[in-house]
Amino acid sequence: MKVEDILAKLVSFPVLGGDHNLEIIHWIQNYIEPFGIATTLVPNEEKTKASLHCRIGPSVDGGVILSGHTDVVPVKGQAWDSDPFTLTKKDGKLFGRGSADMKGFIACCLASLPTLVKADLKKPIYFAFSYDEEIGCLAAPELIEHIQKTYSENAKYAIIGEPSSLEPVIGKKGVCYVLTEVNGSAGHSSGIHKEISAIHESTRLIIWLENKMKELSQATQDHRFNPPHSTLHVGQISGGVATNIVADYTRFEWDVRVIPKDDIEAIFNDYFSFCKERELEVRKQFPDFTITNTFVHPPVPALDTKLTDDIVALTQKISGQNSWKTVSYAAEAGQFHEAGYQSIICGPGSIEQAHRANEYTTQEQLNECVKMLQKLVVEFSI
Ligand SMILES: [Zn+2]
Question: How far is the CA of 101 from the centre of ligand 1 (A)?
């Protein structure tokens, strides 16, 4: 199948992060297996979703994993000019949800399969396609573990095909979303001197987060990133019912994005200690005061590939781009890096188009990516 036909098929499965993905994963499985390649599914506990992995080539160390996710972000509230789940071609652009992020890369992997199976590969190439990436890279840890359990040999590299306009991405910040809930006392606003406002207490915590960012920005910097320091940001807050009622509940969601040198756990521990301190203090006046913190998803580790790692030279060679860059979004690359693979992000399409209305990739980017994978095959056949 031609790469754009494969992409059209993949786009037609409207699998959002969190949704069941068995239909798309079975379609991919049924595409791969007639090439004589055995695939392995890694289902979730409820067996409603699955990741897929397979190996093409010999069972020897030193292979490369090509990684992609089958889920996409929602289209709700976005003004699309065409049906987001029907790939629509116009002036060399291919519009559709996931065309860039990141079904484009999966389509290129699948379109390269005839070349891959015919080649005399000296080192193996693996496909690893996950689900639930868009809601916190949830499936990747289990998929990676399963790959390590299934094959007796060890792969060395991972290329994560997130849209990067095929420019190698060597670093990304570690990311985590946290929900903080504050329970205070209710009452008339005129009695605030004896009540505990959840809003007032929340602001202390938010200011703490802001100050923490200032402190981190002065302590550690990494100039590969923009900004060159870790960031903390409260993106959503709600609480209170009326001006003259003391708010007894507030919730806010915040994210932390750490440069590889900063320790995300240490930041959480500092924050949790401050929350404990406030609880102990406020409970002297209102014993039921609580602050509850919940991780919206487990932390996604940073990607920190060194310029001297061979994956950089390899990706630059096959992509034809001698540059590199860093990004600040979450991606499974952090988890592959943490698992010990030399990892890099490099895929077709631009992140500028991802997650937006009228998301697109170009025919040219797809063709370039297929060429890149063909060059990878040459490199792995020597
Ligand atoms: Zn993505």
Answer: 5
